Every structure is written in C-alpha cells, then in structure tokens.
Amino acid sequence: MGIESFRWLVGNGQSILFWEDAWCGDRPLRVEFPRLFRLALNKKGNVIDFSISKGFKEVNWTDLFSRPLLEREVQMVSSLKEAVSNKILFPEVEDKLLWKHDSK
Questions:
Q1: 81, 51 in Cβ contact below 8 A?
Q2: One pLDDT digit (tens) per residue for the chain, 104 residues
Q3: CA–CA separation, 9 vs 39, rounded Å?
Q4: Which PANTHER family does the record associate with it (predicted)?
Q5: What is the DSSP code string of 77-92?
Q6: Does residue 104 lie in a domain region?
C-alpha cells in the first residue's frame, strides 16, 4: 500500500505539502498542474505557506512563480485557484492523513 492510497484532510495546513501531497482532490497538485509546479518558486512549501487569512482567495498567485506567466499558464493558475478556493484552514485542528478507501 503506497502513499497514493491516502489523502489529507486539511486542518491547520502545517503537515501537508502544497504541491506534493493529495489534499485538494485525489492527486497531488504537482500532478494536476505539472507546468505550474516546474515554475513554482517554493516546491516544498506546506499548505499554510501558500494561504492568507486561513484561505486562498487573496493569494497573489503570480508572485509564486519563477517568471512572468504566459497566457496559457495564467489559465492554468485560474484552474488552480478554483481547485483550492473552497479550502479553509483551521489553526486549532491538526491535519489528518486518511486512507482513501475508508468510508469515514
């Protein structure tokens, strides 16, 4: 049983790697957005490192990349923003690693 059998339930975002862990869907964001991952300045940051005010709606995404984005990359960032926009961090709650096949 590999790590792909697990997913993260976001709490405070301190234990979950933003790009590397499956926390926003079934696959890591580096797999969903490989081009953006290659351009990311912070490839090993935790979820909390990318959030502002316990969420992601106010993040200036263009500052997170190594160069100005091309138009098609801007569209990818829009999809990334949509994917994470409904996630909220809870400072008092620890992140939890769950088995994907657990019904709870």
A1: no
A2: 566 678 899 999 999 999 999 999 889 999 999 999 999 999 999 999 998 877 888 888 888 999 999 999 999 999 999 999 889 999 999 999 998 776 55
A3: 26
A4: PROTEIN, PUTATIVE-RELATED, REVERSE TRANSCRIPTASE ZINC-BINDING DOMAIN-CONTAINING PROTEIN
A5: HHHHHHHHTT----TT
A6: no
**Is 14 part of a structural domain of the chain?**
yes
Residue with tokens 């994917």: 83
Structure confidence by residue, pLDDT tens digits, 60-85:
888 899 999 999 999 999 999 999 98
In degrees and rounded to multiples of 5, residue 6 shows phi and psi of -120, 160
Examine residue 51 and state whether it is found in any structural domain, yes or no: yes
Q: How far apart are CA 86 and CA 17, in angstroms?
A: 17
Helix (H) or strand (E) holding 25: none
Helix, strand, or coil here: 61? Answer: helix
Residue 25 lies in a domain: yes
The domain containing residue 9 runs over which residues?
3-99
Q: DSSP state, 35? A: H
